[in-house]
Amino acid sequence: MGTVVVGLIVLGCAAFAVRSIVKDKKKGKASCSGDCGRCKGCH
Fold first, then answer.
1. Residues 6+ apart with CB under 8 A from 33
2. Mean pLDDT across the chain
């Protein structure tokens, strides 16, 4: 039973994180600005 509860908590956290990323991307707050000259972590 404890495994199911912990699994649901982890699943909820993952869903919240994905939702937050999608909302930020729609608002234009993506982590990558598209300017590879100033990007330090893409490639």
1. 39
2. 80
